[in-house]
Each structure stands twice: as C-alpha cells, then as structure tokens.
C-alpha cells in the first residue's frame, strides 16, 4: 500500500503533473482524499475495487488525479471504504 508521501514523490517526477498541477488542483485534492480514505480504511486498491465491483486499474486512475470521477463514483468509493461522502463549500481563505 503506497503512502501519500510516496505518491507525491512519483507525481513530482511526472511531467503531466508538473505542467498541469495548478490547473488540476481540485482534481488532485479529490485524488488525495480518496487515497487518504482508502489508507484510513486499511484497504488496498484491489480491496476497494472488489467492494465497488470494478477493477484495480479503475481505482488507480481515480487515485492518480487524472480521471475526473462523478459524484456517484465518489459516493460508491466512500461506501466501499466505510465512509460517507459529503459536499461542502467554504468561503475563500478558510
């Protein structure tokens, strides 16, 4: 199971990440939350994929920040790791 710090080291080496990290901020934030939730649940990508009735490669794409998941997919992921999905808007600077 990869740690977030290890993934960040990989992303920093990725030219796509370097060129698009500012524009992809929200996508990468979603990816980070998915990874955190999976790690908190002590599950592998295979475990989550099985719970969602999908493949490990789909989970890897979601966690890479390159795939933009639907709200329904995020909700399915959350339930697979034993969590609930919430949407929250906050004022700038908070």
Would you mind describing this structure in some detail?
The structure is a single chain. With 94 residues, the protein is mostly helical. 63% of the residues lie in helices and 0% in strands. The chain is built from six helices and no strands. Helix 4 crosses helix 5. The mean pLDDT is 84.
> What does the average pLDDT come to?
84
In terms of DSSP E residues, the strand content is under 5%
**Straight-line distance between termini:** 32 Å
SSE sequence, one letter per element: HHHHHH
**Total DSSP E strands:** 0
Helix run count? 6
- Structural class per helix/strand content? mainly alpha
| Backbone CA Rg | 13 Å
Q: Please outline the major beta sheet.
A: none
Helix coverage percent:
55-70%
Low-confidence parts: none
Shape: globular
Features:
94 residues, mainly alpha
Short structural description:
The protein is mainly alpha-helical and 94 residues long. The protein is built from six helices and no strands.
Outline the fold blueprint:
Elements: H1 4-13, H2 15-20, H3 25-40, H4 45-52, H5 56-64, H6 71-80
Helix pairs in contact: 4-5
